[in-house]
Amino acid sequence: MLKKALGTGAAAVALLAVTTAPASADEYWKPHHRSSGNANSAKCYVPGLQGSMPMCLFWHHTGTQAVWAQEGSTYDLAGQKFRENTGTGSGSYVKNNATAMEVRYSQGVGGTVWFNSGYAGNWDYAYDDQGGPLYYTWNENASTMVGIGTRWSITL
Length: 156
Description:
Elements: H1 2-19, E1 55-58, E2 67-70, E3 100-103, E4 111-116, E5 120-126, E6 130-133, E7 143-146
Antiparallel strand pairs: 1-2, 1-3, 3-6, 4-5, 4-7
């Protein structure tokens, strides 16, 4: 009986591990270190804005598929959609649907994705030119902010 209970418990833990966000910061990537065969970073820009330095959110946790990009902070992602023709998830609402981020700023400020609108609740951050799977805001993202660290009362 105990063996069966342990087997069921292990199966539940395995299922939980598959359905939750990545548990390791080691899974974060540095976009400028990607192979030349991976064009994901080329998607992280604001169309029509020359020289933009945006923060991007991605539909897929590998930084692929549909992308949303915005230069500057976004108080509430409600109504924002992933860009058309950028892969699975294109045209879907961004709020509570992103699983990865990328920060393209080069001003030493990085970026933060917040759980709640108005820059509140749990948050994920990335330094300039970095990104990766979201952890605390995986499919629970409602606002983005340019800047991280003590500048925004966040201690890293």
